[in-house]
Amino acid sequence: NLILFNESTIYNPSHFFGFFSAFNPDVVSGVELYKSSIPAKYGGRLSSVLDVASREGNKKKIAGSAGIGLLTSRLNVEGPIRKDRTSFIIGGRTTYANWLLQHLPKEYKHSKAFFYDVNLLISHKINDKNDLYLTGYLSSDRFNLNSDTVYGYGNKNISLKWKHVFNNKLQSLATAGYDRYGYTIYSEQNPVNAYTMKFDISQANFKLHFNYFINSSHTLNF
pLDDT for 14-47, tens place per residue? Predict the structure, then answer.
């Protein structure tokens, strides 16, 4: 399975034992899921491709939203940096679920879990034919299940996109980005037996897509 967020690869798309998605719904504009006939531009996958895109910030005025729940809280702010030309949107979530874990059966009573994620998108309209997009994503999870062993993982992604319109039939999208996923298991409670084991995946990427609109019935992508 390939999971993309604004052209960046997300290796672990969930929080808090899978109860929460890694994607903040307040900043998502659309989702495409391919389970067969996967387009060649995604590089080829055996099972599926999930392509998630975030929305641009408000170019007219500052706006935002916030929410407080039993397990998580969220805050999102968006607005213009330069009116009608440059905008930003930033969103963050965090959890404080340890109180709930204390009410589990005694086998898990001393468990802990914590996560947060941050999304950022800055869009800039250079002129009628050129647009720039800077995207950043950061997430982190830490949990232990009634033991001194702590498990943690996190995603770090950044990408820069340039959209160029040649004419009313041909346009291109160039993307350069860096993705990193890290996973850690450690124990520090007993200094004699303390240990840390970790691994990570890092990749830099560059993609260049063209769309050619032949007519109202046909489009060529390459």
Answer: 988 888 888 999 999 999 999 988 888 888 788 8
Beta bridge partners of 151: 143, 185
Distance, CA of 90 to CA of 72 (rounded, Å): 17
Q: How far is CA 64 from CA 13, 79, 197, 217, in A?
A: 25, 8, 40, 40
């004699």: which residue's tokens?
Answer: 192
- Which run of H or E residues covers position 99? helix 98-101
The answer to whether the predicted template modeling score (pTM) of the entire model surpasses 0.85 is: yes
- Measured CA to CA, the distance from residue 149 to residue 145 in angstroms comes to 8
Tokens of 83: 């009116």
> Would you mind telling me the total number of residues written for the chain in this entry?
222
CB neighbours (10 Å) of residue 76?
A: 20
Residue 133: CB atoms within 10 Å: 19
Q: At 31, list the tokens.
A: 């989702």
Nearest of 43, 48, 107, 96 to residue 70 by alpha carbon: 96
